[in-house]
Q: What sequence folds into this?
């Protein structure tokens, strides 16, 4: 269902559009009369006879994505590309809008696959669904960015999907120029932000050579030169650029005590400060959209006790109206989260987030080191955290050295220190919060996903007397083996992804013995607590063999271990229904460990 809400009367009668048995994934106004909705339709192919037998092979489930245009007044639905039936039948994914073309209210730019297997950029009429091609990519193109409807950046990607090659050209030029190569999955450091009013100049997010933080800056499409950082913050990488409904840049987002903005329009700063106060300075208030007059705003609000809600704010009417919520939860049954400052054994200062169980009584502690590792935890909604807190347990999420978001120098402090400094930071955070809150030091467990799974296993190796249970989800168990796998799989020029990981984990040719010492699989006999391993069979980031060999090593050492393999899923990408079942298993293990 789609509900259309009148901005002049946001609490009044809503107009409902029934889309049928499809799933709406995203939506955006194409113009003031038509709403563009990306929808997903899941179906199953017919079963087929197996040659030479009377058996039939079952059908295969598949999901196709389309963009539909819905009339705000009439409710009529138009499928974009509907005049190209063969293309619709042959393409599963036709759901990406590249440019809303604010100056052309009847058209948008979208990508679609051509019959010869290359991606095309198309000008699509949102009233009729008809489309015309305007640009063809190469066999590896997956995205364009445009200025005033003209393609100015083209993104090509390698077969494995780990590295993109970005090409640029100024409006009026015909030849593409190589701009840079950038990682897609692992600590990406380049992204498109917005157009500018000057032809040939756009805004991007990048970390310049010799600079510590990633910032927004101008890019000259002719010379490929980047300008100085705009609105830079010490020790904070920019999250994204903020734009209004016409695509105009209005500020940069950072994460400090909560979500914060550096506005290019100073008048917006007190507006956002006032909205923060309205939500008790306890939530991340995202300015999801705003009109050209800066009078009406769509807000997305999330926080430790708020899984996500949408609000409409009208400055003239002095009204903030809740128009929708992801979940309606009883706040008294949720744990409260605080930011704690951690001082490590060598004097460094770190941030961590500590969530108390409802009521805040001292009790067991579950440590949740994040994945990445060059990402960071934030003081926002985390379903896993609240489920654990609901059991009466405290939950700790430390941003150890090696995390992302705090600048390159902070991340570099974790490079080649996977088995020691990064683990020590977690241990120091655990010791500090146990002492500060009077928690039960005899009932501590550790769990994590991806790098967090590695940190959980390595924590159980290093501190067998501390951790009473270990849960590793899609985790790494053997560093030399994962590096050898990366080397085999890397199809980038000059092995750039492999080079990325050897700089962070360590070069086997130089650090061979140290990498073995930092591999939980090779020290399985030192683990004392029960271990639960969970892994997607089709994981493209950490192969499932890492968990299988970790299980085998623990079994050979006579330890308590279980491996749950998730068929047809990858890197912790299973649906919420499966996650709910897994959370019940995690809770059962932790209850047993804490008994």
A:
């Amino acid at each position: 269902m789609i509900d259309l809400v009148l901005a002049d009367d946001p609490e009044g009668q809503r107009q409902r559009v029934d889309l049928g048995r499809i799933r709406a994934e995203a939506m955006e106004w194409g113009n003031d009369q038509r709403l563009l909705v990306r929808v997903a339709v899941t179906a199953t192919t017919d079963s087929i006879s197996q040659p030479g037998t009377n058996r039939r092979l079952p059908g295969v489930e598949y999901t196709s994505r389309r963009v539909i245009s819905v009339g705000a007044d009439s409710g009529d639905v138009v499928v974009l590309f509907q005049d190209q039936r063969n293309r619709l039948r042959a393409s599963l994914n036709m759901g990406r809008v590249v440019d809303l073309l604010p100056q052309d209210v009847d058209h948008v730019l979208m990508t679609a696959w051509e019959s010869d297997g290359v991606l095309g950029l198309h000008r699509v009429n949102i009233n009729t669904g008809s489309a015309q091609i305007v640009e063809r990519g190469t066999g590896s193109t997956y995205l364009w960015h445009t200025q005033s409807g003209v393609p100015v950046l083209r993104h090509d990607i390698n077969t494995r999907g780990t590295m993109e090659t970005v090409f640029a050209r100024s409006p009026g030029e015909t030849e593409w120029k190589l701009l840079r190569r950038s990682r897609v999955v692992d600590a990406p450091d380049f992204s498109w932000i917005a157009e500018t009013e000057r032809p040939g100049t756009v805004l991007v997010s990048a970390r310049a050579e010799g600079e510590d933080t990633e910032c927004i800056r101008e890019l000259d499409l002719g010379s490929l030169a980047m300008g100085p950082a705009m609105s830079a913050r010490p020790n904070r990488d920019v999250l994204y650029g903020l734009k209004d409904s016409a695509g105009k840049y209005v500020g940069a987002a950072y994460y400090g005590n909560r979500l914060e903005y550096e506005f290019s329009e100073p008048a917006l700063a007190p507006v956002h400060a006032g909205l923060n106060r309205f939500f008790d300075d306890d939530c991340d208030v995202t300015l999801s959209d705003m009109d050209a007059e800066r009078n009406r705003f769509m807000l997305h609000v999330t926080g430790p006790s708020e899984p996500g809600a949408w609000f409409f704010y009208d400055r003239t009417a002095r009204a903030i109206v809740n128009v929708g919520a992801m979940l309606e939860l009883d706040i008294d049954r949720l744990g409260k989260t605080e930011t704690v400052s951690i001082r490590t054994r060598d004097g460094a200062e770190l941030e961590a987030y500590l969530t108390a169980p409802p009521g805040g009584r001292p009790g067991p502690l579950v440590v949740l080191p994040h994945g990445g590792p060059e990402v960071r935890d934030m003081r926002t909604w985390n379903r896993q955290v609240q489920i654990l807190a609901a059991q009466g347990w405290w939950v700790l999420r430390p941003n150890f050295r090696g995390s992302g978001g705090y600048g390159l120098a902070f991340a570099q402090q974790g490079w080649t220190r996977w088995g020691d400094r990064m683990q020590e930071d977690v241990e120091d955070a655990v010791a500090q919060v146990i002492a500060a809150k009077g928690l039960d030091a005899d009932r501590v467990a550790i769990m994590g996903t991806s790098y967090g799974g590695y940190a959980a296993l390595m924590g159980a190796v290093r501190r067998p007397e501390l951790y009473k249970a270990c849960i590793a989800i899609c985790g790494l168990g053997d560093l030399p083996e994962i590096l050898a796998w990366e080397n085999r799989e890397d199809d980038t020029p000059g092995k750039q992804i492999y080079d990325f990981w050897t700089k962070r984990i360590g070069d086997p040719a130089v650090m061979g013995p140290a990498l073995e010492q930092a591999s939980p699989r090779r020290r399985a006999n030192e683990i004392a607590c029960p271990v639960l391993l969970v892994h997607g069979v089709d994981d493209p980031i950490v192969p499932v063999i890492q968990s299988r060999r970790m299980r085998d090593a623990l079994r050979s050492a006579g330890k308590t271990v279980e491996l749950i393999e998730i068929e047809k899923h990858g890197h912790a990408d299973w649906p919420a229904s499966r996650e709910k079942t897994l959370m019940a298993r995690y809770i059962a293990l932790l209850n047993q460990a804490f008994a």
